[in-house]
Amino acid sequence: MTVRRREFLAGATLPLLGATRSWTLGFPTAPPGEPAAAPLPRLRPVSYRQVRLRDSFWAPRQRINREATVPHLFRELERAGHVSNFERAAARAKEGYRGPVYMDSDLYKSLDAAAYVLGLEPNAGIAEHVDKLAALIRAAQQPDGYVNTCYQVKGRTRFSNLRDDHELYCAGHLIEAAVTHHQATGSRALLDPALRYADLIDRTFGKGPGQRGGYCGHPEIELALIRLAGHTGDRRYYDLARFFVEQRGTKQFAVEHGVPLDRYDGTYFLDQCRIREHTAIAGHAVRAGYLFCAASDLAAETGDLEMLAMLDRVWQSATERRSFVTGGMGSSHHNEGFTSDYDLPTYGAYQESCATISLAMLAHRLGLLHGDARYIDVAERALYNAVLAGVSLDGTRFFYVNPLASMGTHHREPWYDTACCPPNLARIVAGLGGYAYATAERDVYVNLFVQGTADTGLARLEVMTEYPWDGRITITLREPKTSSFALRVRVPGWSAGDVVSRVNGQPSTDAARERGYLVLRRTWKDGDRVEVELPMPVRRLEAHPLVAEAAGRVALARGPIVYCIEQCDQQAPVSTLVVPAGEELRLGPAEPRLLGARTLTGTARSLEGASSEDLYREQRPRQPRSVPIKAVPYGFWDNREPGPMQVWILAG
Ligand SMILES: [Zn+2]
């Protein structure tokens, strides 16, 4: 069946085509004769544009993102050469390109972040800046749709080094920025050049006559094309994404670079096997995260059982053996990625900000695909901890690498030569509301607990809560559109399932539990009030015994927040502090220098005499003394006096 490109100028909301077997994209995507698909709930996320965050945790971060981070990105794009690269390409210059080959992607991702901000509220200054850069992109674009400033200025042959040169990766970020911008503003300023480029890529790559094979060394184009297909209703983009995903693993990079197949290891590029054959998460962490996001998007369309089984295997290895307690993944500097199971260092943890973001994206997708809260638990842990750590409280400094312990020398930078993380952090903070709610035909899912409002389509929700500092959540339903539906409230795994719920003040004894959600099914009327109480004791987490650097140590957590100890809060060196078993730790006061984040306080022991000048010495008795201990959320560390930090603390 051929589906014409729908007219999408009128609005971004996709109509549902009733008789299709997949409504994620709005058109059937499985060719006739494919095996039966797995029955999947396939939730629809509520757009971040329908969600308003009015809390004391995320709302200040979104304000700082809008007022400080996005203007900072624009300044850095000017300073670091991104803008001049486009100016040189527009002038058809053949010299003067600055920076690494993937510079364009930083500019596109910054536009994506800016567009997310515009989707929440108008902002003349940001809109004007986006329009200026969009005009520059259109000026740089070649008549047939190609645009890549490095290749144009350096005069390289296009698509001649797919393994290393990120052309399709850059194109993917242009497409994503264009879709976000069109959805946010209705403007085609970015969408038109993105479509021209996507069409050129579609003409170039494929199995048809005169087309070539290949795929990008860094996945991104795939999930971007699927987004574009959903936005435009044009299945060519979906088919092209599927082509790229399913080609991967045919070891074309070996051919491209003349590497004998028996000496070729494509793991770094996720090119070691075909997509359905992956047995664990491996290789470069961000590449893995983005590729499996695309695979998840394909599986959501087709219900492909082999793809779903592969995603299960990858998910298990990622979350059970290869991710950090703070929510990120990717252990090693050497490959910016995975090594072996349980290799999860502390001082040496890589945990790139973009890798954490990619895990949050994957967790969210799988949560929607399966309608299962345990995936959202992982997204929540990433978002509230390692993602937030990526950006300073003033919004203008960023971590690329996020260790779990520091000797006091690791600090955020205003920018990086490889500047993937700053704009990625900006766009996920602006779009955070998109992670909070989802719907199915007669279900509203509450996935994250953030004070504010959400127009879910089935009802408007007004949420009151002090989460993540307090587990009480009140949800008032306004103007339900249909008489009966289920409100499904996530019961986080960390709450051990002990949850109290009431509807209009009465205990909801009839509430069911399904796939990690509390299910409140009834005929709702305007003003109905649901109260949920999640217990939030301070938890002491310990790692699997094979996580060597966490042996004999605990990490402190409360609700979704993982804590760390910073030297500026302690009376003894952090490396000597021991949290004794049985010592009560309490929620401490709000820390005014950390945007009001709540601390944990209690009494620890300090192992004085533990340090000496000697690298090695005979063991000798230590004299522990009691000292106060104060822990702060990991997502807020390195915002005060520089000094040592530890997530994993010696356990007594
Ligand atoms: Zn990055």
User: What percent of residues adopt helix (DSSP H or I)?
Assistant: 25-40%
Q: Which structural category fits the helices and strands? A: alpha+beta
Main beta sheet: 7 strands, antiparallel
Beginning-to-end CA distance, first to last residue: 66 Å
Number of helical regions? 15
Tell me, briefly, the overall form.
Answer: globular
Low-confidence stretches: 1-23
What small ligands are held by the chains?
Answer: zinc ion
Report strand order across the widest sheet.
2-6-7-8-14-10-11
Mean pLDDT metric: 93
Beta strand %? 15-25%
The Rg value, from CA coordinates, equals: 25 Å
Description of the structure:
There is one protein chain. With about 650 residues, the chain is α+β, with helices and mostly antiparallel strands. It has helices at about 60-80, 80-90, 105-120, 125-140, 150-155, 165-185, 190-205, 220-230, 235-245, 250-255, 285-300, 305-320, 355-370, 375-390, 420-430, and strands spanning about 45, 50-55, 405, 435-440, 445, 450-455, 460-465, 470-480, 485-490, 500-505, 505, 510-515, 515-525, 530-535, 540, 555-560, 560-565, 575-580, 585-590, 595-610, 625-635, 645, 650. The chain has a seven-stranded antiparallel sheet with strand order 2-6-7-8-14-10-11, with no helix packed on it. Strands 1-4-5-9-13-12 form a six-stranded mixed sheet, with no helix packed on it. The structure holds zinc ion.
Summary keywords:
alpha+beta, 7-stranded antiparallel sheet, 6-stranded mixed sheet, 23 strands, globular, disordered N terminus
Can you describe this structure in just a few lines?
With 652 residues, the protein is α+β, with helices and mostly antiparallel strands. The chain is built from 15 helices and 23 strands.
